[in-house]
Amino acid sequence: MVQGETMPIPPIYFIRHGETDWNAEMRYQGQRDIPLNIKGEGQARRNGAKLAEILPNPQGTDLYCSPMTRTRQTFALMMQEAGWTDTPWANSVVFEDKLIEFSFGDWEGWTLEEIKEREPTQYWAREEDKWATKMPNGESYQMLAERIGSWFYKLDKPTVVVAHGGVLRIVRYFLEKVPEQDAPLLKTPQDKIYFWSGDEARWI
């Protein structure tokens, strides 16, 4: 399945993990397992409270979470704030490996300025085509779309997802029919829920 499929997509509630110290330092995080910081914990709680408002009865809704530490922490705090900890629904969560963050390969742990200084050729090559250019020993967004698509196009129920910024960009690419070169630039705030109603998207 690729972007442009016409099958209906059920409602999606997408929560990006809260902030980490590497997010705050503008370091490429990727598949490094960095925990939430204090601000990130607050964002997770905020999103849990808001989710309980807009989804008062989650029964019948599928629940997915990336298995990484920062998403597991976000999930736990979200469930606690929503009052759903230890409910049968919360215990139905699927920790899905396909939702692990985009791999930045050798650049993980580096800031944008460090990449430009240390590997300018590779940096500018990627700037020319962020969709198809693979980072050294990492992924391209095109590769990420293939990985996420194999999960996304099997969704058949309203779904809550706790995952990452790169994953959210691809979900938005699929849902909003965003051009490939624009998808890597999409915003992915950590203090809001991305809600797809089945027909349109909005931030909550």
TrEMBL record:
CDD domains: HP_PGM_like (cd07067). InterPro entries: His_Pase_superF_clade-1 (IPR013078), His_PPase_superfam (IPR029033), PGM_Phosphatase (IPR050275). Transmembrane segments: none annotated. One of its GO terms (molecular function) is phosphatase activity. SMART domains: PGAM. The active site is at residues 17, 101. One of its GO terms (cellular component) is cytoplasm. It comes from the Bacteria. Substrate binds at residues 16-23, 70. PANTHER family: ADENOSYLCOBALAMIN_ALPHA-RIBAZOLE PHOSPHATASE, BROAD-SPECIFICITY PHOSPHATASE YOR283W-RELATED. This is Histidine phosphatase family protein.
